[in-house]
Amino acid sequence: MELGAAADEGLAGGDTFAEDDRPSSWKAGARSQATHCRANSRRGMTDAIRPSYPPVESVRRALEILRILNRLRICTVGDIHAATRLPKPTIVRMLDTLIADGYVVRDNMCGGYRVTHRVEELHAGYKGIAEVIEASRPFSVDLTNAIKWPVGIGTLDGDAIAVQFWTGTISPWVHANTLLHNRPNLLTSAMGRAYMAFCGEEERAALFAVIRAGSNGSFGPEQEAQHNVLLASVRKQGFAIRAPQTEPRRNTTVAMPICHKGTVLASITVSFFISAVPRNKVEEQIIEPLRQAVNKIETVIAFMRRGGASEVDSAVSDCPLDV
Q1: Nearest to 240 by CA among 284, 182, 315, 189
Q2: Where are the alpha helices (DSSP H) in 9-75?
Q3: pLDDT higher for 239 or 165?
Q4: Half-sphere exposure (CA, 13 Å, Cβ side) for 51?
Q5: Mean pLDDT: which of 19-28, 32-41, 223-232 is highest?
């Protein structure tokens, strides 16, 4: 596929992800012989699944009891024992702790224990950024490993896109120290253009209103009409290119939306040096691998929202990138 008008308007630079720094593995609860372990290091290929230290069993037991209570709605100590095989005195101590912290109550009317509204606090921060990152992370890492260029993921943040994740630390061709927490412009960045092109009409109109309010009169109806033409081209092509005047001009960014049921959840980008990728190879080397990654991410998000979050790892392994 040839690059279209939106691409012609901007093959020129800016969103960007270094060495393998996996945390140490553990055997039967004991620390391995490896002495270097940085599970939360910004640099390197941190494995989100492998812990830095042996798990705290009491925490695991409490969380398992909370999951069972949430699933069964109301249950007795005997019900929990049957499901976990934990000693009943341990179950009672765990339940008392959860009651003390307000997550569980003893329901004498129904003859058992149940969760309280406070468990919603555990979920409040998940659906949104955390969910998108969980679903996107393995495919973003795989994509950078395959094509070598850094991948970024950003979500709407008022009048801009906030970069929430990037793979610059594992890209051999990264061109910035970090882009985390940068806020690319809605009008000129590839992330912003991809978001605005694919969000709903009402949301797009609201975003234009925010842009007009903050433009001091420099963005009016004429500029909005021109930008709508560009966004229509982005929708037709399926991807956005950032504005060519964006610095640094030696590189550019291609972005696509991550969607679920017609709602844009985030934008994902690949940044690359213009001189390193021939124009007639951008589709093959950048756009198509990115499109594959987006398809896999959206599949996993749909799976998670159907209630399969506990099986995300198997869903990811069933969706390899064909790069």
Answers
A1: 189
A2: 57-72
A3: 239
A4: 10
A5: 223-232
What single-letter amino acid sits at 262?
A: G
Q: Which tokens go with 12?
A: 């020129």
Angstrom distance (rounded) from CA 249 to CA 187: 17
- Residues contacting 252, CB < 8 A, separation 6+: 10, 11, 12, 13, 14, 190, 241, 242, 244, 271, 272, 274
Which tokens belong to 182? 């940068």
Q: Which amino acid is at 279?
A: R
CA angle 8, 280, 174 (to 5 degrees): 80
Dihedral angle computed from the Cα positions of residues 189, 190, 196 and 198, in that order, rounded to the nearest 10 degrees: 180
Cα 205-206-211 angle, rounded to 5 deg: 95
The type of residue at 290 is L
DSSP letters spanning 199-213: S-HHHHHHHHHHHHH
Question: Could you tell me if 238 and 291 are in contact, meaning their C-beta atoms sit under 8 angstroms apart?
Answer: yes
Distance of CA 321 to the CA centre of its chain: 17
Q: Which of 126, 111, 119, 112 is nearest to 62 (CA)?
A: 119
The whole-model pTM stands at: 0.69
Q: Which of 295, 190, 285, 276 is nearest to 239 (CA)?
A: 190
Report yes or no: 8 and 240 within 8 Å, Cβ to Cβ. Answer: no
Tokens found for residue 237: 């092509």
d(CA 257, CA 277): 22
Helix/strand/coil for 63:
helix
**Token digits for 191?**
């992330």
Q: Can you name the residues that pair with 155 across neighbouring β-strands?
A: 162
In tens, the pLDDT along 250-307 reads: 999 999 999 999 999 999 999 999 999 999 999 999 999 999 999 999 999 999 888 7
Secondary structure class of 123 (helix, strand, coil): helix
Please report where in the chains the tokens 């929708």 appear, as a residue: 235
How large is the angle between the packed helices 77-84 and 88-100, nearest 10 degrees? Answer: 120
